[in-house]
Amino acid sequence: MPMFNGMERIKQGISTLRPSEQKVANYIINNTKAILDMPIAQLAKNTKTSEATIIRMCRSLHIKGFRELKLSISASANQDGITTDRYEDIAADASLSQIIKFISHNNYRSIESTLALIDENSMEKAISLLDQARKIIVIGVGASAIVAFDFEQKCKRINKWCEALTDSHTQLTSAVHLDDRDVVLAISYSGETIEIIDTVKIAKRNKASIISLTGYSSNKVQSLANVNLYASPLEKSIRSGATASRIAQLNIVDILFTGLASLNFEQSVDFLDKTREVIQNR
Amino acid sequence: MPMFNGMERIKQGISTLRPSEQKVANYIINNTKAILDMPIAQLAKNTKTSEATIIRMCRSLHIKGFRELKLSISASANQDGITTDRYEDIAADASLSQIIKFISHNNYRSIESTLALIDENSMEKAISLLDQARKIIVIGVGASAIVAFDFEQKCKRINKWCEALTDSHTQLTSAVHLDDRDVVLAISYSGETIEIIDTVKIAKRNKASIISLTGYSSNKVQSLANVNLYASPLEKSIRSGATASRIAQLNIVDILFTGLASLNFEQSVDFLDKTREVIQNR
DNA sequence: ATCTAAAATGTAGCTTAACTACATAAAAAT
DNA sequence: ATTTTTATGTAGTTAAGCTACATTTTAGAT
């Protein structure tokens, strides 16, 4: 199944592409409709690159090939508007109401644009892995640690064995005890966090399944995983320090959890009601 | 240039098609998404017709060929994104794509509706309190603990003394040492969390300032605080267990932080750049 | 019923487009 | 300066879409 927001993917991913791939991406952005009935050879010629480069660009954007790229572009070609406006970084003299709008908009956009990156097949596979898992290890550091804790908390509510590990030593030592019945959910915005990579490698060696949740780019963690999930960066604001990616990651985690819970709907509802009762008014 | 309403064309034109072409058209109507990555040979097989028939069907619908048919179907297959219609709680038999939409919509709405609850004066006052604070204590348990940690992390990046305390003992013992130069940020969705109330009472006795971040209701924590902030509940889904309130709270925390940082813009930017550098590629 | 003409459908082979594997060139790291 | 890694291109393979023609089916006329 192809994905449905090709242009969104291109715009989001363009900065992570190789130079010549970027040439292609820019050409597509500027000639969106023309692409649709252009053979790959022609596009290669027009962008002074090669067919192979175009295919590689597709892969970098996590799209199977040129055919699928076209389909996904076609799907987004007539529903533009929402996604085109880009917010600049916050100004030095921003008023409070500007800040409120800016931050809220950013957070809200990060959910919206993450939606475009969701591949239902991967999501399905991830949920099924989690469901079958004896034990789930969630690893993340820094901002991602928060997301890891969140998932752990949720799992506890439905009586699923899940441990959030947020410092590198604990991660490593726990990874040693994993086996093929276990699943690792590796959360890293950059996908290049050394601690996470090391832990994932060990887990992999022990035959545990790996689910990655990273930014939308080709990255190390993603390449090591069995299933890849992405949360939109939109991390425009170096200055704000407000990590919108974290909101997007939480959104994904919510989906994973809800999907997981719905596989055993009756029991989950029961568990959730019980746990809710216990923490009532707290 | 392909057209953008493939399904529409098929539905409108189906009655004028030859019998075997109609078989194909019906199949497409019933398996729209599957068509997109199905080769023409497979479709011919599935419909017990031939490749030539499919091509002829395309021509009958005034579409150049099978390639273009797919593009036009793709363009019309995805007319639904995050829609505005109200979502009820999630059903037992919800499909994955329903779950994805439901959760994303919920999270995104929680930001939107929290925006309506923001009182700029209170926000201004809260930011100013935080700015003047010698030390900030952030308290929360359960889902709110995550928000507390998030704020702590952010403060560390701009070198602001801030401690997130998420278990009741630590909260109580730390509250004892507060004085009038300190600020407590109390996060509780219900506003009735006993541990939080107790801690806030002690902090108040010690003349620390209290900022509450609770659901939008009259509640104990709020009544004890100097400044009240609210995060929209929208906790429609007892069952989902997905706490949208948490996203709304994070949004408020982002605003607080950005407001705080912008009061000392130059220095904050400098600090943020430095801390960002240090954690580069992690 | 039988034959003929027209319409509908299928088969097989051709053409073109997409993709793969390998080779070369450029850039980084040692 | 040398090796290793990364980026890009070339040429050949595979597979998909399409065309031309053959066959079958249908309908109307005798």
| SSE ordering of chain A | HHHHHHHHEHEHEHEHEHH
Considering DSSP H and I runs of 4 or more, what fraction of the residues of chain A is helical? Answer: 55-70%
Oligomeric state of this protein: homodimer
Mind describing the biggest β-sheet of chain A?
5 strands, parallel
Number of helices of chain A: 14
Low-pLDDT stretches of chain A: 80-87
Rg of chain A is 20 Å
- Net shape of chain A: globular
Q: Mean of residue pLDDT of chain A?
A: 84
The structure class of chain A reads alpha/beta
Tell me how many strands of chain A there are: 5
Largest interface: A-B, 83 and 82 residues
Distance between the termini of chain A: 44 Å
Order of strands, widest sheet of chain A: 2-1-3-4-5
Strand content of chain A: 5-15%
Polypeptide structure, described:
The structure is a homodimer of 282-residue chains. Helix content of chain A is 58%, strand content 9%. Chain A starts with 5 loop residues before the first helix and ends with a helix. Chain A is built from 14 helices and 5 strands. With 282 residues, chain A is of the alpha/beta class. A 5-stranded parallel sheet of chain A has the order 2-1-3-4-5, sandwiched between helices. The first copy, chain A, has helices at 6-13, 19-30, 32-35, 40-46, 51-60, 66-77, 96-117, 120-132, 143-157, 168-176, 194-205, 220-224, 244-263, 265-278; strands at residues 136-139, 162-165, 183-188, 209-214, 227-230. The interface between A and B is large, with 83 and 82 residues. Chain B binds a DNA duplex (30 and 30 nucleotides) through helix 2, helix 4 and helix 5.
